[in-house]
Design brief:
Elements (H helix, E strand, L loop, with lengths): L1 E6 L19 H15 L7 E4 L3 H8 L6 E2 L9 H8 L8 E5 L3 H11 L12 E6 L8 E7 L5
Helix pairs in contact: 3-4
Length: 153
């Protein structure tokens, strides 16, 4: 199973009285989202399930793909790593899963899957971490296939 973790692109700082879920992408964030979406669209399988946080910045990031996606409250800014993995059906899902979400959850999930311990790894704004679960008898099952930042596209 492939699990693709995509952090939302750069968003405006919240204004006084504005709900965190209402923060929109900046112009730079819109460019970041489009560059990363173009990169992803060249690589993801047609069967990829796309799951997205209800936060506006995540919705806007995902819309850059031009594909259907499902919004899940469980992927909001305060999501736990366990909730993210349950939503993805990791590692049992037969289809690849792309999750558009938030820090620190994405970094914590990457650390847990790759290092086996909770660590505060940083996923850059607009960045992607692509992981694969492999059925291996000799040990390490999770492989890191790619880490991509929109600044290098």
């Amino acid at each position: 199973m492939d699990l693709i973790l995509w952090r939302h692109a750069e968003a405006h700082i919240g204004k006084e009285g504005q709900a965190d879920l209402e923060r929109a992408l900046t112009a730079k964030g819109e460019r970041q989202a489009q560059r990363m979406a173009d990169w992803l669209n060249q690589r993801i399988a047609h069967s990829t399930r796309i799951l997205v946080s209800p936060a506006l910045r995540c919705q806007q990031t995902a819309k850059a793909l031009g594909k259907n996606f499902k919004t899940l409250e469980a992927l909001g800014p305060d999501a736990s790593g366990e909730a993210l993995l349950m939503a993805a059906r990791w590692p049992e899902s037969s289809d690849p899963v792309l999750i558009v979400g938030h820090q620190p959850t994405l970094g914590l999930v990457a650390a847990h899957l790759l290092a086996g311990m909770p660590q505060a790894w940083s996923v850059k704004k607009g960045g992607v971490w692509w992981l694969r679960d492999r059925d291996r008898e000799e040990g390490a099952r999770v492989a890191l296939l790619a880490v991509q930042s929109p600044e290098y596209l």
